[in-house]
Each structure stands twice: as C-alpha cells, then as structure tokens.
Input
Amino acid sequence: VYSLYGHTAIRVTDRKAGTDLVFNYGVFDFNSEYFLWRFVLGKTDYICMATPWDYFLREYKTGGRSVVAQVLNLTENEALGIRDYLYNNIRRENRTYRYNFLTNNCTTRVMDCIDSCITGQIVYSWKEEPKTYRRILHEYTDSFPWTREGNDVLLGADVDTLLSHKATCFIPGYYMHALSNAVVRNDFQDTRKLVRESVTLVEASPSDVKEMPGFPLTPLEAGWMFFAIALAIMLMEFLTRKMFWPLDVILLLLHGLAGCLILFMFLFSEHPTLDSNWLVGVLNPLPLIALPFVTKAAWHDRRTLWHYFMAVWLAVFMLFMPWMPQHMCVLAV
Output
C-alpha cells in the first residue's frame, strides 16, 4: 500500500570523490522488534540511508516503477551544503526519525533539506486550488477501493481541512510538480529556475510486476451482498415467526470488532488525524457488550431494547452527518 503514493530521494554525484549515492529517508525494517505493533501505534522510526545509485535504479526497474530525475540548478556552495546536510543525516546518531505519513516523511524531509541549503527565497508557482489530505489520498487510491475504504474509515476530521499549498507536498508527485515551477530569488530580486531539467530515467512497466490477486468484490458490492443476505433472512424470520439468532451474532460481532479497532486507534495510536474520527460514535465496542443479551433473547424468540436503541441512535447520527466536519466514507464503487 505504501508504494501507491510514490517516493522521493536525493541523488548526489561527487565526481571528485568518485561516489554516486541516493539518500533515502524512506528506509524501514520489517524485521525490527515489534515493527507491526509499533506501526499500528504510530511509533514507527524510519532511517535515512545512502544507497549506490546503480542499486537504487535496478530496484525500481525490477519493481516496474518509474523514476523521474529533476536536476537541481544549484550554485557550488548550495550543492556542497546539500551534500554535507545529507552526510550528516546518515550519521548513526542522526539517521533515525519518527515517521509521520502526512507531515514528516521521505518527501517532507527532502523538502526541508533543499529549503535549508538554498541561498535566497524559493518561490513556488501554485496553479491548483487548495485541497484536503483526504481528497489527495483519494487520487492515489481510486483504483484500489479497499485501500481507499480503509483510509476513509480510519482517518478522522483533521484530514478534511483545506491545506496550504506547501502542505500538499507531502505527496511526492505534488512536490515534484511544485519544484518544476519553482524559482530562487536572491536579495537583489534576481531569479533562477530551481530545476534545470527533468529526465525520465525509467518508464513504469506494470506488466513486469506480479500483483497479488485482489478481493473479487468492491466494498460497495460486498455491502450490497451482505445486505441482501440479511434481508432474505429477515423475510424468512417474518414468514416463520422465528428469530434467526446467528444473524444477530454475526452483525453484533462484526460491528463490535470494527468498533474495537476504531476506538483503539482513536485512543492509543499516534498516527495523525485518527483521534478526530467521528465514526467512533457508531463504530465502538458496545455491540460486544450487548451480544450475549441479544443472542439469549433471540434464542427464546424475544426482542430487546438494543435494536430500538441502535435504530434511533443511527438515525440521529445520520441526520447530523451533513454538519459534521468529517467526510464520512462512502462505499467505493
């Protein structure tokens, strides 16, 4: 999933030293201790590492991913400054940083490096209207409906605020576009283009990539299928005058487990925007508490107040949804 959004790195060719390195802020180790658990909690530490250019390029060719090089138009002092900045960042005591997908990632780190080492003011030419984090993420996940749905369920209201143009550069493609139109202005108001030229070094070859087969149904299709099954069971209950208690178990279990995930991320994860998720109002562990009582009542063909309570609560929640500051997930087609 993380590869959907692209990547940013800096190549430094030092002819005097005979080195050709790519400085990469997106390095992590799946085998590090408790990696997945720490990732869920938002306590993921990434590393800045220097990789030989040939190795980096071969990896992208093998993966069928494109590589676009933007050659920066730098003075000698600026080039040396960037080189020293990067070499300092790969030192053992400096190379590790707390990763944040939206505000502190491989692209924002490169942007900080360039901004710090350029002499003068970098002036960007913004042509697009301001966007939200969610809208930008949708652009990259439209062809992956389950990934998009997962993002929408987990990410809260904070991803629906309009960003400054510079904040949109957390996405590599947006930063690349911003750099291509940027100029550097000195104290005498003289300007020069920040990017001398752009060169496509590797064309994307998706046919070379062995993709894992996806789930055959979209979230929308799966939702309608599940609804149709539940509707058929309800019709059977009405005709036989008996309550089908396994349906209550399945619905309450799925609802409660989803609620446990949402509430856990809401309370304990350090990932940005998860603690502003209004969906916690309807996706929470309460159904798990109700599960034994509702199941017991259904076993004896009795109703409980739970269904009436949930019907009223969901109706109230949906009534006020248009005024909530969060874009509620709509099942992707």
Remarks:
- The first strand starts at residue 10 and ends at 14.
- The beta strands are 10-14, 19-27, 45-52, 67-72, 96-98, 121-123, 183-185, 191-193, 195-202.
- The chain has eleven helices and nine strands.
- The two ends are 19 Å apart (CA to CA).
